[in-house]
Specification:
alpha/beta; G_AIG1; signal; 6 strands; P-loop_NTPase; 2 domains; Rossmann fold; 380 residues
């Protein structure tokens, strides 16, 4: 996300904060995603004296802060109590939040107040990254040149934070490493603390709680020494710019919604057309299936008729064959050839003695041959 827009977001949140109690001092935490802003906020708040997680902490480079979150802390200072409002912001470089969403979050802060800012904590992770340098430089151009007086650089990753000499040396190193920021951070206080995670064995957790308590005391002592409240000189101009941007974005959003509506109507019409085509194809498919079923039924019927005819023809042929076999058996039971031969001999004898008998025999033999040939012809 554009760092300029992020800082615009933070600026607008700050200048529109309105405390219901004039004694509340607003402390804004700014920093890159994963630098430990939310953890630092939990250390300052120290819920139930156990550093319970109220501000959503991140996991590695994954941002835990998706929205502005603020909690009020009451601290005893001498004979009175001082209230601090700790304000945790969306991390610089958070890509999951659009500019439109961010500006809407800004707009929601308007009912809160216009009381100004007691301190800005710019949270780093040991050293300034290139993007953090750009963000730090933009901070003054967006607010005004007075903002530096109300800014403290916080390094919550310094294990030797209770060693004043080590802290001073590291602070000088940070300033010397960033010559382009020299004019801005030369008079800026750098606070070293160690906000270790409360994970691991009970021994480790207790040791980390001890480090957190010492870090908290160091931060509260610094806040107690900070005087005055920051009121940006360009507040009204900046408000108008944000509202103009929101108005333009609203118009653009409406156009997008209208285009989406038209596209949705077009898609619905296309869906209906495709559904009609699909239904027509389904009807055609059913008609083809019906025709195919009818064709199969006809074929099956024809097949049944053909089989029945074949069966009847087979029965007829078997019947004829059986009848022929019966006739053959009947003929085989009568010695008809011999009878014919005898009859021929008798007939010849009746005609004229021996010569007639011979003639009768010849006739009988001729009849026998004729009958045999006939039976061969009819395949009996």
């Amino acid at each position: 996300m554009n760092f300029h827009i992020v800082l615009l977001f933070i600026h607008f949140f700050l200048v529109t904060l309105k405390a219901h109690d004039n004694q509340v001092r607003n402390i804004m935490l700014i920093g890159r995603t994963g630098n430990g802003k939310s953890t630092l906020a939990n250390v300052l708040l120290n819920k139930n004296d156990e550093f319970e997680e109220v501000f959503k902490e991140s996991s590695g480079s994954i941002s835990g802060t998706k929205d502005i979150q603020n909690e009020v802390l009451k601290v005893k200072s001498g004979n009175k109590y001082v209230k601090y409002r700790i304000i945790d912001t969306v991390g610089l470089g958070e890509n999951n939040i659009t500019i439109q969403e961010m500006l809407k979050k800004i707009a929601k802060t308007i009912p809160f107040v216009d009381e100004g800012l007691h301190r800005i904590f710019f949270v780093i992770r040991n050293r300034f990254t290139e993007n953090e340098k750009k963000a730090y430089l933009l901070k003054e151009s967006i607010f005004d040149n007075e903002v530096v007086k109300y800014t403290t650089i916080i390094n919550p990753w310094f294990s030797d934070f209770e060693n004043e000499t080590a802290c001073k040396d590291d602070g000088l190193k940070i300033k010397n490493e960033n010559q382009e920021l020299a004019d801005f951070i030369k008079s800026t206080r750098i606070i070293h603390v160690n906000t270790l995670p409360l994970k691991g064995s009970s021994y480790i957790v207790n040791a980390h709680k001890k480090a957190r308590k010492a870090s908290r005391q160091k931060l509260l002592a610094h806040l107690n020494n900070c005087q005055g409240t920051y009121h940006p000189s360009n507040l009204n101009i900046f408000k108008e710019q944000v509202w103009d941007y929101l108005s333009e974005e609203e118009i653009s959003l409406r156009r997008e919604l209208e285009n989406e509506r038209k596209l949705r109507i077009k898609l619905e019409e296309e869906e209906r057309r495709l559904r009609r085509e699909l239904e027509e194809k389904e009807v055609q498919k059913r008609e083809l299936e019906d025709k195919e079923r009818m064709r199969r039924r006809l074929l099956e019927k024809e097949e049944r008729i053909r089989r029945r005819e074949l069966e009847e023809e087979e029965k007829r042929l078997r019947k004829e064959l059986k009848e022929k076999e019966t006739k053959i058996r009947e003929l085989e039971t009568i010695p008809y050839v011999r009878v014919l031969s005898i009859l021929g001999s008798i007939g010849g004898a009746m005609l004229s003695g021996v010569s007639g008998a011979v003639l009768g025999a010849v006739i009988g033999v001729g009849l026998e041959t004729a009958v045999t040939d006939f039976m061969k012809y009819i395949n009996i």
